[in-house]
UniProtKB/TrEMBL annotation:
Residues 15-170 form the Glycosyltransferase subfamily 4-like N-terminal domain. InterPro entries: Glyco_trans_1, Glyco_trans_4-like_N, Glycosyltransferase_grp1. Its EC number is 2.4.-.-. Residues 190-354 form the Glycosyl transferase family domain. CDD domains: GT4_PimA-like. Gene3D superfamilies: Glycogen Phosphorylase B. This is Glycosyltransferase family 4 protein. It is an enzyme of class 2 (transferase). One of its GO terms (molecular function) is glycosyltransferase activity. SUPFAM superfamilies: UDP-Glycosyltransferase/glycogen phosphorylase (SSF53756). Keywords: Glycosyltransferase, Transferase.
Amino acid sequence: MRRHRGYFTPHSGLIAKVLAGLGHEVVVLTAELPEGGGAVEQEDGAEIHYLAGTPPEKKGGRFWQNSATAFDLLHAERPFDIVFGRGMATWGFLQHSSFASEVPIVLHEGTYPRWLHQIESRADWLAPLLAFPLAPIFALKNRKAHAFMRRAARVVCNSPQLASALRRASWWRPYTTQAIVYGFDTSLYQPKLPSASEPARLVSLGRLAWDKGVLPMIDVVALLRDRTVTLECMGPGSDKVRRAAAGHARRRGISDRYTTPGPVQHEEVPQRLAGASVFLFPSTHAEGLPKVVLEAMATGLPVVAYRMPVLDSLIEDGVTGFQVPARSVRAMADRVDQLLANPALAEKMGAAARLKIETDFTPSAINAKWQVLLGEVLADTSARKRG
């Protein structure tokens, strides 16, 4: 939750805020406080229970047992109607709760199957041929998660591409998937044109990690025709990765134009993005729907990204941004050069990007989809109990 990562709004926090805003009573069971220990607090209308003895980022045995125990105590006081979970966080509910058979589970997924992503990002025409026989093998290797998703009343995905991918990954007995994207309030993000009197500024936002493209971004800047362009990479990263990136920037001759301010508090993001020229997203991570791309588009920035399935519903090539072949630094640099040489094109593309977010990610429309889903799950549960 926000206490764990002030610089990042977790998916569970987004969903809890939406459900509480719709008037539902929302209780979140999460890992202990950053300083250790437990507490009960209010956040965005939801009641947050920080469970002592469950270290963040380690959703294992202790979290599963403690969260199931906490659930049972709360459920006995005032029964819950639906359990939400992300990834394997709710595994403990299935294994240890006395009420696992009574309360329907809705899972929220935001990560593309990594094995399928690796196939599809390298060979479009070959992907269907490979995915069909490989899917059962990977399901067997991840049988807990596979069984868990089959058990869910709904597997809600944050993009249509992810929902389709999960069905392909379980083709012999597909999960009940449904796509609901994030509702996005664009009023927090105001477009601002780059200053004509200052060097062009490229920005990225996210973890400083190998699969997020920390080194390719440096290579892009080193290849640009304009030798004054700066690059700002905002986000958390290990000391090892930060040192490697700094050394790479030095070897490529751009260390004086490369900055890594570290994690940026979420409320500061709109201001940090405003006035940039281009947003870089050379990620090879198995993304579900990257929120940082939504934020950049809402700020009116053209996005240049490595091509991946989930971006097809966001970046229309040549209209709201550019998608280039994965791992092609040269292609990404060429597109950035094109935008920097043509400010009118960059401005037009940024405006189209913002309009895309305003049109397709309207909070009221997305919230209505959540309300319909809740009603369907409850109706199905009631019908089964009557049967």
